[in-house]
Specification:
With 170 residues, the protein is of the alpha+beta class. It is built from three helices and eight strands. It has a four-stranded antiparallel beta sheet with strand order 1-2-3-4, with helices on one face. The longest helix has 37 residues, at 15-51.
Length: 170
């Protein structure tokens, strides 16, 4: 990529474009959390079932188990509502990628990040996730780029500048 060239990605923040990024994030970072919660919930429910015959003392572990089993779906519904609320406010997410940095503007804020400020990245066939922290990420769907060539150039740039990079179907 030319040192002076800037790749631009822009998309409206709507459910159809924002939700796939969150789902991709959940497949990675969220999977461990879901497995832990489901395992803990399942164990609590199974251990409390025989104790129910002895009285109401088993209701607390049973309730904790049920809550643990329900947390992942509650988080997914909450995230969908957050995206829908932000969608109602309108706005566009725009990213400008250069050799030196990435500038991100989401309607409410603008961030200029040097490449070494990014913790990691995920390159997927659906788009690019840039992680600033463990759970703080920026999403750029493939459709946000002006052309397939721009998307591929950005994938190459991110692969060179951000370590570690996970590839999913790219």
């Amino acid at each position: 990529m030319d040192a002076t060239k800037t790749i631009t990605a822009s998309y409206p923040f709507v459910l159809e474009t924002a939700l796939p990024g969150w789902e991709l994030h959940q497949k990675g970072a969220g999977l461990v959390n879901r497995v832990v919660l489901w395992t803990l919930g399942g164990v609590m429910v199974l251990l409390s079932l025989p104790a129910l015959a002895f009285g109401p003392g088993a209701l607390m572990p049973l309730a904790i188990g049920i809550v643990c089993l329900c947390i992942p779906s509650f988080i997914a519904r909450t995230m969908r509502r957050v995206i829908e609320r932000r969608q109602a406010e309108g706005g566009t997410v725009e990213g400008k990628f250069s050799e030196d940095s990435v500038a991100i503007h989401n309607g409410k804020s603008q961030t200029q990040l040097k490449w070494d400020a990014l913790r990691s990245a995920v390159l997927a066939k659906e788009g690019i996730l840039l992680y600033q922290g463990k759970y703080n990420f920026h999403w750029f769907p493939r459709s946000a780029f002006q052309s397939q060539e721009d998307y591929e150039a950005c994938v190459g740039l991110v692969a060179r500048k951000v370590k570690p990079v996970k590839r999913k179907g790219v």
